[in-house]
Predict the 3D structure of the following.
Amino acid sequence: MKPINVGLLGIGTVGGGTFTVLKRNAEEITRRAGRPIRITAVADKNLELARKVTGGDVRLTDDAFAVVADPEIDIVVELIGGYGVAKELVLKAIENGKHVVTANKALLAVHGNEIFAAAQKKGVMVAFEAAVAGGIPIIKALREGLTANRIEWIAGIINGTTNFILSEMRDKGLPFAEVLKEAQALGYAEADPTFDIEGVDAAHKATIMSAIAFGIPMQFDKAYVEGISKLDAMDITYAEQLGYRIKLLGIARRREQGVELRVHPTLIPAKRLIANVEGAMNAVLVQGDAVGATLYYGKGAGAEPTASAVIADLVDVTRLHTSDPEHRVPHLAFQPDQVRDVPVLPIEDVVTSYYLRMHVEDKPGVLADITRILADSSISIEALLQKEAAEGESHTDIIMLTHQTTERNANAAIASIEALPVVQGKVVKLRMESL
């Protein structure tokens, strides 16, 4: 049978991994796809690197637009990244009637609605398994494997850099800045790590998963995003003493009034499986009404794990290449006319539990004043840790874990607590999820 011709845009880490795995496992992949899948053209600004990776076996060019215009190319694999030229190339490939495979979570989270609409109109597929959690097949699980379920919530450790940093902070008791330098030295963090440590990368991925889970448009601009750069190693230690681990979670939850979409450091009970995901690994926990909780774990980045997801998409597209567009799996799991514009709730309306740490004067009556304020805001306390003041010190830490309340309630209570003359500085607030 005639091979499927693939044009690869970008032969960096993931592009190189894709070329290598596709070549190494060619026979196995052909047996599964029903016909050979071959990369016939590669576009990259660094032609020397492209030549080195491919051995010069394919057509090389530094003009990606020439590849998306090539009538011989059936599928375009976009591994350039970013929002700029990648968007132009993807839309041009679709316009030219080509299927697209991409690992570009930023592009889809921000411009996915426009891209999927263009693909729908043209009758082509946009596949993006590699955009979320590297080699873990979470998109396929959400879109197909769990299709019988009303998905209630998703909680994911979906950024390896931040998970590595938090694991090291907990294991070694080191401050954030020191561990970040270590992560950069080991290649787990970029020279400019902002997208990772401030939660933006995780929010892109959470946005994509929420759209598939709930049948809503991509709404990245509505996500609440908070990173780990201000997290104190002291809070990781206190959380541990209370039986919790702190992880940067991407959370999407269905509520009556709308959808919660948020990324932030979160306390999770240490006995939960997901709380024990360490280092640069990823994990996604999905709660469905029929199946209950399912956990997906594996490598969230790297050349070959991500290539695994890219090639799985290539096989899917190859199998469905000649099928009627009306009978393919929809991009966002729900039929395009059934995608509903459900509102994403502002963070003030989110309902969760809280970890509160306050530095207070060590004298009688302080705890009573604080608990009274919480009671007035209808916030009940689940656990309490009061540290003894060090010798010669007049202040100490009180740590409280609350039961569920709205963020608005918690913020009002914290403002009142901070106004007490016995409380020094700001109250540290972290969110908790029992999962």
Q: What stands out?
A: The mean pLDDT is 95. The CA atoms of residues 46 and 402 lie 54 Å apart. The first helix runs from residue 13 to 24. The chain has three domains: 4-135+303-336, 138-298, 349-432.
